[in-house]
Automatic annotation (TrEMBL):
Belongs to the gluconeogenesis factor family. Its main location: cytoplasm. This is Putative gluconeogenesis factor. Keywords: Cytoplasm. The keyword Transmembrane helix does not apply. Required for morphogenesis under gluconeogenic growth conditions. InterPro entries: CofD (IPR002882), CofD-like_dom_sf (IPR038136), Gluconeogen_factor (IPR010119). CDD domains: YvcK_like (cd07187). SUPFAM superfamilies: CofD-like.
């Protein structure tokens, strides 16, 4: 019997659904492990109102892997523009996820129920059953609590960690998340915000330990652009150093690096105001981290912004699967 390769993608934000959409129709078994530390926008408001796990990243992952007709996915993604004090700015899918979480008693079971209803080709696992709070210490020694506060500070981050505001014990991921990581053929990190989308997942102790222990190849998709206040002036090697430092050992096996230059006059920095400059390259530094480097043109220019070309990235991930199995 043919064994479908198991790919686990860990992250959040806008990068995660891009890769999920590319993998949905491939002959692979995809699991998305999604951050639950978001506290901005509609997700943050719902989190504060009813203490639910922030649903925004989960909603986007559901749509990315759903095989429902387009109109049904568009309804799920619809964001109210009403003047109503409560509904304005909320995505309908966020309200549905929050309602199901209340009905089921936890977010994990709610997402599994919704996965069946939305005909998900794969699996979507919230990384924890409770909303987590992101904490950061900056290089000047100051500290802040909350993803949106940390991002808005525009200060250089030294380290991040997560806490559960309702439980003094260290947060833990559910068993299904750990099993998926340990059973995977490939673990993919990113693309996404280093400190606010990727690391919040890895800072859950049993997730970090599983990623270090798994026999799967761990692939990091390095960002194309640096982010204001998070990764200003970072090289690709700096991104990997931060990941390895947070987990206490080198655990990144392979890094995908875009080497196609971003045209200087193309980016609209007013519209894409969270980004800074293209990530610079330090291949010697990457080699020092002990990882394989795959450098290629992964760039897609659209809407005066610089993004990963989904099809090229997915093709490279599948190539890595083939090469690892061939070895």
């Amino acid at each position: 019997m043919f064994h479908k390769p198991k790919i686990v993608i860990i992250g959040g934000g806008t990068g995660l659904p891009v890769i999920l959409r590319g993998l949905r129709d491939q002959n692979v078994d995809v699991t998305a492990i999604v951050t639950v530390a978001d506290d901005g926008g509609s997700s943050g408001i719902l989190r504060n109102y009813i203490n639910v796990v922030p649903p925004g990243d989960i909603r986007n992952a559901l749509v990315a892997l759903s095989e429902l007709p387009t109109i049904e996915k568009e309804i799920f993604q619809y964001r109210f523009n009403s003047k109503d004090n409560f509904f304005a700015g909320h995505a309908l899918g966020n309200l549905i996820i929050s309602a199901l979480a209340e009905m089921k008693g936890n977010i994990f079971d709610a997402v599994q129920e919704l996965s069946d209803l939305m005909r998900i080709n794969g699996h979507i696992y919230p990384v924890a059953n409770e909303p987590l709070t992101l904490n950061a210490e900056f290089t000047d020694g100051s500290k802040l609590v909350g993803e949106s506060e940390i991002t808005a500070a525009h200060k250089q981050i030294q380290r991040v960690w997560v806490t559960d505001s309702d439980d003094p014990e260290a947060p833990m991921a559910v068993k299904q998340v750990i099993d998926a990581i340990m059973d995977a053929d490939q673990i993919v990190l990113g693309p996404g915000s280093l400190f606010t989308s990727i690391l919040p997942n890895l800072m859950i102790s049993n997730v970090g330990e599983a990623v270090k222990k798994t026999k799967a190849e761990v692939v990091y998709i390095c960002n194309i652009m640096t982010q204001k206040g998070e990764t200003d002036h970072f090289t690709d090697a700096d991104h990997v150093r931060v990941l390895n430092r947070h987990l206490g050992e080198p655990f990144i096996d392979t890094v995908l690096v875009n080497i196609q230059p971003v045209p200087k006059d193309y980016i609209n920095f007013q519209e894409w105001n969270e980004i800074s400059q293209p990530v610079t390259h330090d291949f010697a530094g990457l080699r020092e981290q002990g990882c394989r480097v795959i450098s290629a043109n992964f760039l897609r220019l659209r809407d005066n912004g610089a993004f990963h070309d989904r099809d090229k990235v997915v093709r490279e991930l599948l190539n890595r699967l083939h090469d690892v199995h061939a070895d």
